[in-house]
Amino acid sequence: MHRVSLAVRRGEVIALVGENGSGKTTLAKLLANPYQPTSGTVRWDGIDVRTLNPASVRSLVAVISQDWWRFPFTARQNIAIGRSDRPHGTGPTVVEAAVAASAHDLVTCLPRGYDTLLDRSFKDGHDLSGGQWQRLAAARGLYRNGRLLICDEPSAALDARAEHALFQQFRRHPDRAVVLITHRLANVRHADRIYVLRDGRVVEEGTHEQLMAADGLYRELFELQASGYTE
User: Fold this and answer.
1) Global pTM?
2) Residue 43: domain span
């Protein structure tokens, strides 16, 4: 990353877009704290993250990714493992997180509902499709109730209806900041700000309307995708 400066404010949805290798996921990992910058600073509420307890910072972050873990546990445990140490009475319940991620209906249709074991290696175990696992992983991220929610291609295996419901949910929490990384530019149109990356640099910044008017890389990528639906 080179000379990147951005702010993520509570209640906002910002989007990071760009071609493969542009630095989107690297930037997200700097924000989430697995990576530390070799120069410059990442600040939480104005405090240099290097002066804070790493575990405390990471407890404030939730991640929904296209790569998810399949634990040989029940559906309920697969969601709650997103934050097993969360204080009682804070944040959404397991069911509320599942509803928000459009996972509740699929879970209630399982043989034992939320107590269904999700691993066929065990007696009475059950497995899910890729799209169903991704809904459960999204519920896990929402259950974690992080102040910063990083979504890295969170809907790669979802159908159009589930994808739309998930993106609507991202905007419904005024105390949460959302960083959205996706190649599906239709999903970033309503972001508060869009950052376009190329070779580790932010080359464009603005709303969808501003970036379309700028006639730069964002517009090129957006129209390239849109042409597949209009031709």
Assistant:
1) 0.86
2) 13-228
